[in-house]
Structure formats: C-alpha cells, structure tokens
Amino acid sequence: MMNTQKLAELIRKSHHIVALTGAGISTAAGIPDFRGPNGLYVTRRYDPEKTFDIDWFDTDPRTFFAFARDFLTMVDRVEPTQAHAFLAELEQQGLLQSVITQNIDGLHQKAGSRNVIEVHGSFQQGHCRGCGHDYSYDELKHKILAEEVPHCDHCKGVIKPDIVFYGEAVRGMDEAESEARHADLFLAIGTSLTVYPAAMLPQFSGGPVVSINRGALGEVVRGMESIERDIDEVFAEVRSILSPSL
Predict the structure, then answer these.
(1) Are strands 96-101 and 17-21 parallel, antiparallel or unpaired?
(2) For the domain bounded by 32-77+121-163, which CATH number is listed?
(3) What is the pTM of this model?
(4) Residue ranges per domain, the chain?
(5) Which member of 15, 108, 120, 182 is catalytic?
(6) pLDDT tens digits along 174-222
(7) Active-site residue 120, yes or no?
C-alpha cells in the first residue's frame, strides 16, 4: 500500500515528475470544488449545465458572469495551499518538470510554479467574441466587477475570459501528453479522474502513477497506487521526510 514514506522515496529518485491537479488541491485554500459535498454541482448555486456551456454563454452570458464575479473576488483573497507550494519547490529543485492543471484559479503560478499547462484555460486573459480584441487580467477583472456583462470598448461585443467551456476544445493536450510520456513519476492530485480528456493522461506515464485524492476515482490506470487522505497533510509529511535533501 502506498504511504507518504514510499511516496517520498519515489520523489527522491525521480527526475521528471509530472503532476496533474484538479479542484481538490485548492479546497484547503477556500475554493470549493465542483463535485464535493459543497461543490457547484451539488449546491447548484449556479446552474452547472448553463454556467460553463458555450452555447448558453452566447445566448445569455449573465449566468456565467454572476459566477465569475464571485469567483474572482474569492480567488483574490486566498493563498496557495501547502500542496501548491510543495510542487513549486519540487520544480525549483529540478525534480518536477511540469504541472498540468484542470483548475482556473491561478494558484500554481501564485505559489511560484512556472511550467504550468492550463488545459481548461484561465482568467489571465480574455478576448472579445466580436472583434477578437485581447484584454489583460486587470482589464478583464475590472470589467467583470463593474458590468453585469462586460462589453468590448472597440465593438461592444461580449468579452469572454480564456477559460474552456463545455463545447470548446481543451488546450495544450499535445504538450500535456508529451510531458506524461516523459514522466518517471506521475502524480494525480486532487482529481477524481472523471473529466476527459485530462483523465486519460496518467495512462501515458512512463513511470509509476500515484493518486493523492479523497474519494472514488473514475479512470484507474493499471498499477496506479493511491493515498486517500488530506492532500496538504500528505505533502507536509512528504516534505518533512525529504527536508534534508530539498
């Protein structure tokens, strides 16, 4: 059975670690996940079938921007978790080569990670659905907080953050798959492995696959080992074991 001692040993002898992260890595920061007990799909404070549907966005974008205002306000006041910080530290030590994230909260970058593949996009940039004009994060955030529906200064089209909606293609999957194939250790952290195509990435790993997540997994890779515990507690223990070498 996988435990923190064994995980620390795997990390110590690896040189091309790749991490796939989902909403579970950010819940300790105060950002609810989507499928957990207090998640969006359970509480339905926002209708998940409409909030992230690109056709509905083009029909009535107010549904999404009600969520976006709350989300951006929340993200601004939270800090990365111990797990985010640990992954950034592994990257700085040259052990972890990339983070593939399904999250749109930007906490990996806030923690110091540099090579982050955001397969579901992010709020860091937006563009007008009409003329294609690009908007920076600060411009986008200002408009989202100030307007019920943010409109372009140039053509009055609706501005959409560059996050991936249902009905749109995910981003960076070729790069993500390549990273997975080069991995000598693949960590699936805070993800139930139920959202495709990202859920398929562990099967491409060139090395061991370890899931650190609470709850059932959708995609189970042959030989994959799991630690079903609090993510921050797991990485705090692993860091303590590795501390002389980090």
Answers:
(1) parallel
(2) 3.30.1600.10
(3) 0.90
(4) 1-31+81-120+169-246, 32-77+121-163
(5) 120
(6) 999 999 999 999 999 999 888 889 999 999 999 999 999 987 677 677 7
(7) yes
